[in-house]
Amino acid sequence: MSMIFFACVVRVRDGLPLSASTDFHFNQDFLECRKKLKALSSALAQYPSRGTAKGRDLSIHFLSSGDIACMAICSSNYSTIMAFCFLEELQWEFAASYDTTSISLASRPYAFLEFDNVIQKVKWHFNRARGSRAKANRQKVEEELRFQPPVQLKLEDPELLNGMANGGHAGVHVEVVPTYRMQPVTPLGILSLVLNIMCGALNLIRGVHLAEYSFQEDHEGIGNVMAFLLPFLACVFQCYLYLFYSSARKVKTFALFFSICLCNVYLYGLRNLWQIAFHIGVASLASYQILTRQLVEKQPDCGV
């Protein structure tokens, strides 16, 4: 069960969000907590380096160091020590990835959105397992918290509610989760989609016909059926990755491409070399289009 629901990295001096996890929750309590996190992020310079804002079901934890602060929304039942272990590891990963100059020069929200991949990985690690790294760090963090306890806030504190109501800098970015869109679809991208759909349809038709024969007469042909149906699914997912943003796009793109290549090589004999080359060529074009279509940040109407 997930105990860490959301995490983000912000710049301390002005609360500018630098990166955030892109998982969505539509629970009303969570949405309210997220708004309070935004209000709190714009006032982090007023607080000590560690703090916790407790609520009935959800809590906000923050850890600031230098120019950046890491913040998380966790279940109120989640260990405070483990929450700060999570934030400390996240902070270390971000500091290792970006220098202070690029952080200082960032002028738009979510300038380091690709760091979402790291946030998801660390969040998964802490949600799923109490791994060796977490255990090794726990004792150190526990000792630090004993000597320097985090400042205690309440989610119902007037200053948080005022930050939401009055705006100021807290009203600059309404959402904590980034609002973004992909670059416009290019003519070459449309061509790759059409070819991908065609290849997927061919794989599905061949796979279904072969399945009817295999299940009736030749049970040894099930491997060939799978080799047709897997590329069909891969083509569908390639179209999805091209049209919509997804975390770890590069890893998913290469995994889909290699699965298409392996399945087509396996089908040698049922397909000739020209057919195999065509399918791999279409998969290559689709992968290239996915990797080159970047995010375009949607700037807030009120500016920075």
How would you portray this structure in words?
The chain has 10 helices and 8 strands. A 6-stranded mixed beta sheet has the order 2-1-5-4-3-6, sandwiched between helices. The protein has a two-stranded antiparallel ribbon with strand order 7-8. Strand 4 (58-65) and strand 5 form a beta hairpin. The longest helix is centred in the middle third of the chain and has 30 residues, at 187-216. By secondary structure, the protein is of the alpha+beta class. The chain starts with a strand and ends in a 7-residue tail after the last strand. Helix content is 55%, strand content 14%. It is elongated and about 70 Å long.
What's the helix and strand layout?
Elements: E1 4-11, E2 17-20, H1 28-41, E3 50-54, E4 58-65, E5 68-75, H2 80-97, H3 100-105, H4 116-128, H5 132-147, E6 151-154, H6 158-166, E7 180-182, H7 187-216, H8 222-243, H9 249-266, H10 273-292, E8 295-297
Parallel strand pairs: 3-6
Antiparallel strand pairs: 1-2, 1-5, 3-4, 4-5, 7-8
Helix pairs in contact: 1-6, 2-4, 2-5, 7-8, 7-10, 8-9, 8-10, 9-10
